[in-house]
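[#protein-structures] MJ: dropping AraC-like DNA-binding protein/quercetin dioxygenase-like cupin family protein here for a structure pass
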Amino acid sequence: MPESIRVLRKSQFFHPDGFPIVVTRRDPQEPFGLHSHEFWEIVIITGGSGLHVTGDDSYELAAGDAFVIGGSRPHDYQNLDDLRLINVLFDNNELPWGLGDLSEMPGYHALFTLEPAFRQRHRFDSRLRLDPMDLAYAIEQIERLEHELDERAAGFRVQAFAMMMQLVTFLARCYDRCRSPRSQGLLEVADAIAHIEIHYPDVITLDQLIQISNMSRRNFLRTFETVMGDSPIQYLIRLRIRKACERLRTSQKSITEIAMDVGFSDSNYFSRKFRDVIGVSPREYKRMYREVPPVTGVDMGLDDGSD
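AK: finished. structure tokens for AraC-like DNA-binding protein/quercetin dioxygenase-like cupin family protein:
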């Protein structure tokens, strides 16, 4: 009879105020059993050894291993020999992943999207292995995050989000920096994704992306669509439309100018695709987000200094 899978709930680990980041320590990790989560987690192995079990597969763990577990993926730790680890739990839907240029980093896509999805195919060989100095720095960053979450002083939400993004960026840089045969395959796909994120206003062809990935056409398309849920060209179109939405909310430019700015050479084609993705026309979307006139001191009931 197959082992039942225990589901860990957010309510068991997250603070009652609903903040979507938690730090937990397993020092050492005790036997727990096969389980999945309602949340995601970054796992940093800080010492000892053991086996990471996912379904029928198991992978050896040692200090410095760092990986991401998606909420629905069952896993367990077995053959524990003083295995020590830190978990950074997070609600994947509540973090500001679109912040800054994070999406332009191949290591981010490899660590948080590709490696979790293809762990079985790569037999965990594509995981990140931090050297002692990087491991110490990662632990230091997590300790500062943990202090903010423990104290919960005024402004802790801003600080904790910033520290979480710093940790994610650091781990992504480490993954990108330590390119090795075990991770190269994922990073080549991640390079193509990052190329789209950086050069979305430019002409991008499927042949260019295949060349960047250094993969066969068939393998690249299968891998990309499996992980991203879209073909590369559809992903590009959705990204351009997302960027157009940002401009429609804030820019005074015309719809045609915005379409050109984000990479569409035909404003009619842009409008059709925009409606397909967003559900309304660019003009209707812009009207929905038209800026509200600023409230004056008189409107607020304040004395404007006049008689």
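MJ: nice. The CA atoms of residues 34 and 76 lie 5 Å apart.
AK: one more thing. The chain is about 50% helix and 20% strand.
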